[in-house]
Amino acid sequence: MDATIQPSTLHGSVEAVSSKSMAHRLLVLAMLADQPCEFVCNTTSLDIEATARCLQALQDVRHSQEQGCSNKAPCVLDCGESGTTLRFLLPVACALGIPARFECHGRLIQRPLAPLDRELCKHGVALEREDRAMLATGKLAPGRFVLPGDVSSQFVSGLLLAASALDRPSEIWVSAPVQSRPYVTLTTRALELFGQDVSCGSVVYEGVTYERFFVDPKALVAPTRCVVEGDWSNAAFWLAAGTLEREGLTVFGLDPASPQGDRAILAALAGFGARIARRTDAVRATMDCPRAARLDVSAIPDLVPPLAAIAATAPGTSKLTNAGRLRLKESDRLASVSAAINALGGHARIMEDDLVIRGVERLVGGTVDACNDHRIAMMGAVMATHATGQVTITGADCIAKSYPTFWEDYASLGGRVSLSSIGEG
Q1: CATH code of the domain occupying 20-219
Q2: What angle do CA 88, 89, 91 make, to 5 degrees?
Q3: Which of 45, 224, 365, 425 is the most buried (most CB within 10 A)?
């Protein structure tokens, strides 16, 4: 599907979609608790559906085992393109002792699993990588798991979730500093909601400082009602768009005290000269004095597309540094972000792991290849509001991965967008 956007401005307010990050965690724990729980989530997405689908398959196997049925065939878990689904459920399935074949689509099988895979194998698991799948057998043994801090925080979160399903205590040691630490906090908050305490401290071993997470598993107790908070990662695109328009934009349903790491969008926008107004459950962004910015994005890689959209027209030259992890996302985001800006008449270039963007007064329009990456499609839509000509985004349906109603919300805010299937005249 292609999205064609005519020059237009966005204004008004929009409700934040539920946090994909928190939904994954709460769904996993709800399955492990194996108790009725009202789950309140105001949206779904391909990634959330992938986790729910896999959890249902695991639950079916557990129920069969409880009824005395024996099936040695691996449980098939279709992860779609969701890295979170794979990285969370690989250790969880192993903790349950359920042989599983994780089917992967898109670039998922190419995305890193080391050193998580090595730690799993050290604790009784056998892994076999296939062309587009990962086969896991064996039961995960409790103990000490050691990870470097400069890898995906999803590895830490996956082990924390799995540790809650084991029969004895486990420790997860992560060398400091821990990259994307707020996402680990999201996991510990979710575990606490289900009655599982996680203690965290610091330990020095052989001259290396580690953050030590200790889990003494006990029966998880599902709350009567689970409400998934608003998502800062997707809201960042609307807040970015607000800084490009005179009237600004308001996003409701956001918790200003949320542990979500991408709440850092507020400080980042301020760095570009934006004015931020906070309320109990809403945030409004407008532009005050636009300027270029230099930001270290190592801990906020998902914010690079909306921030780059602002930098494309900010006076001066902006630099988004330490962005190497972007190469391992749904697309090579260093390349796809740079290409999107240049396709619309902007100036962006890659310098090693940094993205350098020289702002122009207005973009001129053109065609953006979304590269099957939901955040590139949304980035293109934000930049289109500051373009003098038509913008076409090819492969625009990839937004279904995290935000299926994005185009409807875009139109409700005044965006002049038309959607067409490939091949339509």
Answers
A1: 3.65.10.10
A2: 80
A3: 45
Q: Label each residue of 36-74 as H, E or C.
A: CCEEECCCCCHHHHHHHHHHHHHHHHHHHHHCCCCCCCC
pLDDT in tens, 198-220: 999 999 999 999 999 999 999 99
Task: Give the Cα separation of 314 and 291 in Å (integer).
Answer: 5
Are the CB atoms for 58 and 81 separated by under 8 Å? no
Active site residues: 302
Class of domain 2-17+230-420: alpha beta
Q: Two tokens at 420?
A: 């067409």
Q: Are 313 and 364 in contact (CB under 8 A)?
A: no
Look up the pTM and report it. 0.90
For residue 149 the two structure tokens come to: 């801090």
Q: Which tokens sit at 385?
A: 């509001």
DSSP conformational letter for 246: S
Residue ranges matching CATH 3.65.10.10 in the chain: 2-17+230-420, 20-219
Give per-residue pLDDT as tens, 374-421: 999 999 999 999 999 999 999 999 999 999 999 999 999 999 999 997
